[in-house]
């Protein structure tokens, strides 16, 4: 059984602030967990405006926690995957295509490319043809969990659809058979099962979004999610999950 700690949408700025405090709190929470295999997934929007200094700080914070066995990152719409690669080079944070962790296969999908058409808003994403091909090829093989920044199936209100994925239909076609997806971007604990797709979308470490609202509205709801995952008869299965919330007293300290 493995334990995954999903930290998403940290949105760290050039200079340290309360978002850094929140992230450091979550990392210290991980320290206190009594599990052997601690794996962290950073599911995008790690830095605001792809700030180098923000990426460097994340690598430094995670590097200090020797009990985090490994850490995998995907880029979000606020990130630049090239800058991330250069800042995380030689650190514990990996930007990988795939990982096999204790018999469970994960595929990391880059949704950070800007849409080609003009119908979506700033914040939307796209999967390149190359990434689509990789997803198609991988989904024919063993069962896997897909990890991405943007959710792969439609969730949330209209405003959130405008910052979704441009080629979502193509993706759905590929993953419709049966797949589990772990994403960020929504800044809320939204989950949705559609057909055979089980989509987990999680809390941001920086701030929340109210998906009941007609337009973008921030909330104070933030934190991270932990998952207990194991391979049951070759199928990756989320045995349980838990939201770890950040309270005001954490960031006020
Ligand atoms: Fe995002």
TrEMBL record:
Keywords: Hydrolase, Iron, Metal-binding. Gene3D superfamilies: 3.60.21.10. PANTHER family: CYCLIC NUCLEOTIDE PHOSPHODIESTERASE CBUA0032-RELATED, PHOSPHOHYDROLASE. Pfam families: Metallophos. This is Icc protein. InterPro entries: Calcineurin-like_PHP, CNP_phosphodiesterase-III, Metallo-depent_PP-like. One of its GO terms (molecular function) is metal ion binding. Residues 2-188 form the Calcineurin-like phosphoesterase domain. It comes from the Bacteria. Belongs to the cyclic nucleotide phosphodiesterase class-III family.
């Amino acid at each position: 059984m493995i334990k995954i700690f999903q930290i998403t949408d940290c949105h760290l700025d050039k200079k340290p602030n309360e978002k850094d405090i929140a992230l450091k709190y979550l990392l210290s929470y991980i320290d206190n967990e009594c599990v052997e295999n601690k794996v962290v997934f950073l599911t995008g929007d790690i830095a605001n405006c792809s700030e180098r200094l923000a990426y460097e700080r994340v690598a430094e914070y995670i590097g200090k926690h020797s009990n985090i066995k490994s850490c995998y990152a995907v880029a979000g719409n606020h990130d630049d995957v090239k800058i991330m690669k250069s800042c995380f080079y030689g650190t514990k944070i990996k930007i990988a295509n795939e990982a096999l962790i204790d018999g469970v296969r994960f595929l990391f999908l880059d949704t950070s490319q800007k849409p080609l058409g003009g119908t979506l808003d700033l914040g939307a994403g796209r999967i390149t043809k190359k990434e689509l091909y990789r997803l198609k090829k991988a989904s024919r093989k063993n069962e896997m969990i897909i990890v991405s920044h943007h959710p792969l199936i439609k969730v949330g209100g209209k405003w959130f659809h405008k910052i979704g994925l441009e080629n979502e239909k193509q993706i759905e076609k590929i993953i419709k058979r049966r797949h589990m997806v772990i994403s960020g971007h929504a800044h809320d604990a939204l989950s949705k099962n559609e057909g055979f797709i089980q989509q987990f979308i999680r809390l941001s470490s920086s701030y929340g979004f109210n998906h009941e609202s007609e337009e973008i509205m921030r909330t104070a709801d933030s934190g991270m999610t932990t998952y207990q995952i194991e391979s049951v008869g070759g199928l990756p299965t989320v045995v349980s999950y838990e939201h770890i919330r950040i309270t005001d007293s954490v960031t006020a300290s």
